[in-house]
Amino acid sequence: MASDERIGEILKAIRDAVVGYDDEACERLCRSALEEGVDPNRAVMEGLTGGMGIVGELYNKQEYFVPELLLCADALNAGLSVLKPHLKVENASEKGKLLLGVVEGDIHDIGKNLVKIMFEAAGWDVYDLGNNVAIAKFAEEQQKVNADIVALSALMTTSMLAMPKIIESLKAQSPGVKVLVGGAPLSQEIARRYGADAYAPDAVAAVKEAANLLGNVM
Amino acid sequence: MRLKQDRMNSAERAKALFDYRKPDRVPISMIAPGFCCRNAGLPITVAYNDPQNNFYAMYWTAEQYGWDPIPQIVRHTVVETLDFGGDVRLPEGEYEGALVIKSFPVKSDSDVEALTMPDPGKTGMIGAALEYGRLQQAHGLPVTFVSRSPFTIASNICGLQQFCKWLIKKPELCERLMKVAIEHTFNVLQYWTDAFGAENIFVFMSSPSESNQVISPKQFEKFALPYHLIYHERLKTLGIKRFFFHVCGDQNANLPRLADASPWEHPSILSFGHEVNLEAAAQYFPKDIICGNIEPAVIQTGTAQQVYELAGANLESGKKIPGGFILSAGCELPIAAPACNVFAITKAVDDLGWY
After folding, report:
1. Quick one: which H or E segment has residue B206?
2. In percent, how much of chain A has pLDDT > 70?
3. CATH says B10-352 is which class?
4. CB of B311 within 8 A of CB of B348?
5. Does the beta-carbon distance from B161 to A71 stay under 8 Å?
6. Residues A132 and A63 in one domain
7. Do B94 and A105 make contact, defined as CB atoms within 8 angstroms?
8. For A34-93, how does the pLDDT look when each residue is reduced to its tens digit (9 = 90+)?
9. Alpha carbon distance A46, A54 (integer Å)
């Protein structure tokens, strides 16, 4: 078992590997963490997720953009693939469950993918329906998943028109579910008009909005 | 439609702008091939595969709303994902408003080297665009050539997500794709020049993948900007002078670098998204005609009164721009924009757009 000091070093190195989008180093460090007896849940939360938290801050400060965010997520996933088999299952959805998709008529999924990355990094269980998701599919999947939050994304003014219909069907079926919307043509005002519970301008903000909706203010 | 005090027609208005003279009023221009089809009761697929009906839908819609085709902005001449062998289908159903990419031509590193240059005479939608160009020429309009920036074309050959990762991990692949993009663009432009004559061509370019919603200004400077310089060198070599650049999305952080370079002929038309302040754009590009920038989502979801007020605010700023101003939506006019809201833009010009 490594000393507290050594554990601290390993966790910091994992964070740095995520922030430095070094997937090979991140994978190697996560293996070392296991070999040296670091609690894998701690390696995820204080290492990988901690690193992604820093990435989110860098994105907010406009020091990181989409290319960096995508590569940091690759590094996180490389580490996660090593640690995941060793995680205690009960911690998997401690933050909440998110059902996510790009609405019907829209194939632009880079924003949705970033949202997925940031939610997973923050410890949410994410159910990703992909892109061009039929209106009825959201309610169908929500019935199976019972997510706390359903997040809808659209890049096109044409496809955003599907959102109010999706929201209406979700609320009719699961009155307690919270709906978060985002995408280039959306705004707070349009989100409100469409019946959504919240709007997020980007992936980092989406995690905060989701936490607010559940009363877990970050 | 003639507005109440019109003293010029669209061609005269365009000439005035390019001579740095004030036209009678602020011209109105829209990127609206899909909207025009729907306005004429046609499916939006017509914008891609039926030049005859698309042309007349756009021609009549422009007349209906008092728009000035400076130039008439049509669907893309270069559809890079399709041209290089990707799988693309026409839009279907109620909510699709553009071509749907089913697979990209480049899926792995090795696909980049294996790319072959498309033949402009046999590729993608170039034939339909050529037919459209003949209709424009027959009606005395400039022939539009519509493409995206080399950076954006390159990102559409392999997919933006892959391209973003390669920018950092394998920049040589991005460079290779951008070289391919510019070669293809100019192969088609040469074909266009042979068909229509350089003096009759109006080049339209958009650059959505370069927005700061995707890349940093440093990445813009390192990767995208050099290809703008090459692009305009080659455009000048071909003898093409007319250029319309839609600087798509939030590119505020790119503007200083773009302004320092501004490699196009002056004046060109520079169109901005609603994310960019028109007065700031005019300061960056004093020798060009500024076009913009009513928020498309408001045109689609707002009330006519809201659209009128937004257009009025645009006109107030735009009329002061010394290089000239064209009123437009901040990006493509939404296909589902209510007719009344589109009319509100014209009414704003009729009430407030006179010089």
Report:
1. strand B201-206
2. 96
3. alpha beta
4. yes
5. no
6. no
7. yes
8. 999 999 989 998 999 999 999 999 999 999 999 999 999 999 999 999 998 888 765 445
9. 11
Whether B238 and B193 have beta carbons less than 8 Å apart is answered as yes
Q: Which two tokens stand for residue A152?
A: 């809808």
Rounded to two decimals, the ipTM of the complex is 0.94
Q: In the predicted model, is pLDDT for residue A217 greater than 70?
A: no
* Residue matched to tokens 């993009």: B181
Q: Which two tokens stand for residue B169?
A: 């991990």
Interface of chain A against chain B, CB under 8 Å? 21, 62, 65-68, 70-71, 74, 103-107, 110, 113, 132, 156-162, 184-187, 190, 193
Average per-residue pLDDT in chain A? 92
The reply to whether A206 falls in a domain is yes
The model's pLDDT over B101-113, given as tens digits with 9 standing for 90+, comes to 999 999 999 999 9
Asked if A157 lies within 8 A of B296 by C-beta distance, the reply is yes
Average pLDDT over residues B25-43: 97
Question: What would the mean pLDDT of A16-33 be, rounded to a whole number?
Answer: 97
Q: Which domain holds residue A181?
A: 97-217
Whether residue A39 sits in one domain with residue A117? no
Query: Of the residues A86, A109, A131, which one is the last residue of a structural domain?
Result: A86
CA distance B215 to chain A (A): 5
**A113 chain-B contacts, CB cut-off 8 A:** 161
Same domain for A74 and A130? no
Among the partner-chain residues B164, B169, B297, the one whose CB lies closest to the CB of A66 is B164
Structure tokens at A96: 């909440």
